[in-house]
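Continuing the batch. This is chain 6 of the set; chains 1 through 5 are on the previous pages. Same settings as before, nothing changed between runs. Recording input and output for traceability.
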Amino acid sequence: VRYDACDAACAAEAVARVADLHGGRVDALINTCGLLHDPATGLTPEKALAQLSAEAMQRVYEANCVAPSMAMVHFAPLLQAGGAERDGSHGRAVAATLSARVGSIADNKMGGWYSYRASKAALNQTVVGAALELGRAARTTKGRKRDVAVVALHPGTVDTRLSSPFSARVKPEKLFTPERAAGDLLKVLSGLGPTDSGSFLAYDGSTIPW
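Output for chain 6:
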């Protein structure tokens, strides 16, 4: 299914297609889009304030915050569908979004990487807001809308094109294969409890400060 979160017509078509394929509901949304650098355009993480540009910031923000935020908007109705009146239970759905530890304001001890850090911090705020809103909806509709666990996830440093220019300084045991990272994150999602919605969690299940 072709999906462009920032193209309203494309997004509407994709959501309708997914709804048709899955009986009007989905149990999990996992946002994995992200942008750190782009050799084709010279985009790279900033090391100093003087390197900031409005164009680069807007592009990074759109990829890292706007697109996953819009995906939550588009798919929230499908995640909430299937409450008690549909399947006799209050089964929980999951909306997970890949954030990054560098998006933590409390954990920022190095500075730099302004656009990437800021875009992930903004994404984290959306995650918290969505968790609160969807939680209220589940409580106030008497089971007609499912509870949705909304979380931000830090996958660690993964051996992909996103991290490859910066992975030489990473200890081998801290550089994860995509398969390892996916397995770790799925394990975290499978262990989510009733109070975990609105959390910022690392690949090992530990909580990351905002």
